[in-house]
Amino acid sequence: MAEITLDVDFEPDFDVIVVGGGCAGCVAAYKLAEAGKAVLVVERGNYSGAKNMTGGRIYTHSLAKVFPDYLDAPLQRKVSHERISLMAPDSNFTVDFTSRELTEPGQESWTVLRAPFDQWLAEKAEEAGAEIIPGIAVEDLLMANGKVVGISAAGEEMTARMVILADGVNSLLTSKAGLSKPAPAIDQVAVGAKETIQLDPAVIESRFLCNPGEGASWLFAGSMTNGAIGGAFVYTNEDSISIGIVATMSEVIKQDIPVYQMLENFKNRPEIAPLIRDGKLVEYSGHVVPEGGLKMMPELVGNGVIVAGDAAMMCMNLGYTVRGMDLAIASGEIAGKAAIQALDAGDTSKAGLQCYKTMLDQSFIMRDMKQYENFPEFMEECPRLFKGYPEMIRDIMNPMFIVNGQPRESLKKMAMGPIKEIGMFTIAKDAMKGMKAL
Ligand SMILES: Cc1cc2nc3c(=O)[nH]c(=O)nc-3n(C[C@H](O)[C@H](O)[C@H](O)COP(=O)(O)OP(=O)(O)OC[C@H]3O[C@@H](n4cnc5c(N)ncnc54)[C@H](O)[C@@H]3O)c2cc1C
Question: What global pTM score does this model have?
């Protein structure tokens, strides 16, 4: 970090500088600007969302809290179908859940594409009075007397009473501020590859059995990751499908097929190919996902600095649901509020910014992060979720559905063979551990 000397009558350029114009950064800037604070967002992409990626489906509760007009945002389709699948090399078992309650205000979720969505958030922040400089990466933090007092970017220095780090999962600045280790462990992060495939809206609705304007979230575990911890996803957008693979980095490096090949193989599966047939590839992206949960969180408050969103590792992948954007938005809102409180009290030191931690602890963010604290370990201890259980289900279902003139066995006998192969005791232990972790 660059140490600078401040004059006695030092007046900073801004009240707050926000690093990163993604979900967390734009919302923090919006809250600050709305309260009349001088706030600058520095975003390395040519526009907000240019470098961002998600699966993606956003649970809109936290967006609705900040923006009552959130339905004007470029949301894609309201999710009315929740599908989860266990995929063996030659079979696929799917649960398709629909319920009116899934689509009710306050608890609904929408599919989303980050480029238009993040630009909408950035416009909201700008309309409220925030300044946004895109196309510049922040390289370092400025320090004076042990306190963060600004940033340096593209050879220029800019000062502020405090800095909010919302620079995503690869936040080099969090470690420069002394709040985290230089890099997360490779078993705490996953790598994601995604394609966006354009299709006619009516084709999407008929292939995914959805009404106009509604869509599906579909998560898969099993053979597509070749036994590695991870899975695949398919989300329906207005006129495109988001399809991708996520796999834990420590396991990916042991595989003989790279993640992009896993995605290619997944797309060619007989269950998946008809969903994207005749579609046009319009975007390809790759990104890291923080999956280590609470145990990989950095310190959230430093002297003159706080951390929000993925930079604070606020993300959770529970297999049937992936969440990061609702946490990023809520933590951005709380970061904004905490910064306003500290600025109004004239104390943006570590002590003055502790209100951020207190507000986070009282919010759903820390409660949910604590609730699922042990889930990442459960995934590591239960490789059978990815290789074992999908095959077991196949071996139970096949004799149920295959009628070939051979004498039938009782359902109990058909099921017990595959169950015994893994072991009743192992299955019961996995079920208990899974229930505890969830
Ligand atoms: C494959 C995949 C699937 C996912 N699926 C889902 C899902 O379905 N639902 C869900 O809710 N979440 C999902 N997530 C997680 C979600 O996308 C993240 O949690 C969310 O994007 C975090 O938002 P953020 O604003 O904290 O970080 P980001 O969106 O990463 O934004 C950080 C911003 O900081 C900028 N930046 C970085 N470094 C600098 C720098 N030095 N200077 C200036 N700017 C900088 C970046 O360009 C970026 O704009 C998924 C993630 C991945 C990768």
Answer: 0.95
